[in-house]
Automatic annotation (TrEMBL):
GO terms for biological process: transmembrane transport. Pfam families: BPD_transp_1. It comes from Actinoplanes aureus. Residues 56-245 form the ABC transmembrane type-1 domain. Keywords: Cell membrane, Membrane, Transmembrane, Transmembrane helix, Transport. Its main location: membrane. This is Carbohydrate ABC transporter permease. It is found in: Cell membrane. It is a multi-pass membrane protein. InterPro entries: MetI-like, MetI-like_sf. The chain crosses the membrane at residues 50-79, 91-113, 125-145, 166-191, 224-245. Belongs to the binding-protein-dependent transport system permease family.
Amino acid sequence: MSAVVFLVPFAFIVLTALKDRQDASRLEFSWPRNVQFVQNLVDVVQARDYMLIIAFINSTILTVCSVTLMVILAAMVAFVLQRRRSRWTPLINFLVLSGLIVPPAVVPTIWVLQGIGLFRTMTGLIFVEVAFGLAFSILLFRAFIATIPRELDEAAIIDGAGPVRLFFRVIFPLLRSVAITVIVVQSVAVFNDFTNPLYFLPGSDNATVQLTLYNFQSQYGTQYNLLFMNILLITIPPLIMFLFFNRRIVAGMTAGAVKG
């Protein structure tokens, strides 16, 4: 059932992207009468001075930087919360859970970014993506770190390892499976994010792939062949990631849940 829900719309996107303008305007689930894949691809890429290429570059920079910071910070916070319990641990746990429950506030976030001079900048948007995705990542890392024996920490400390060396040389390499899970899940989330770039990084020069779909729809709303070609192009990268790392995602999420 779930396969039908996902595969049928994707097949409709592919078929419409192959059609010419007249055939695509009917919005029918049918084989194209005149396959026009290459021409549609060229038209979409060249639209608005190659905005799609610029958007892919912006989305790649945003995704790589955000996910890198997310993985490192979440792993470090999770390690401290799991290994060094204190009277502040319940409060910190509450704040982490609040990051999953409390909805983000757009206007106060814009006010904060304007106050520190990061509004309408890629750096500001990266910090926003990290802040919004950190809570989920911390919970995954913490559940997995709970399965790592404390004897490894004690042996490394006896050998003279400090806190930083203990984490990066002993603990962090053991987090490979859950790190891959966080990387794939958060990469897809950041790459497909629409609202945050729209609110915190406005402007056509700063467009991400999802914003190009919004802009493309307003300009080429009647050319469904080009619109669906654009949808197809921005859908392929996350789809490929899920196809290649599907088993690792499940393994990373279930390992900490089962053993913890």
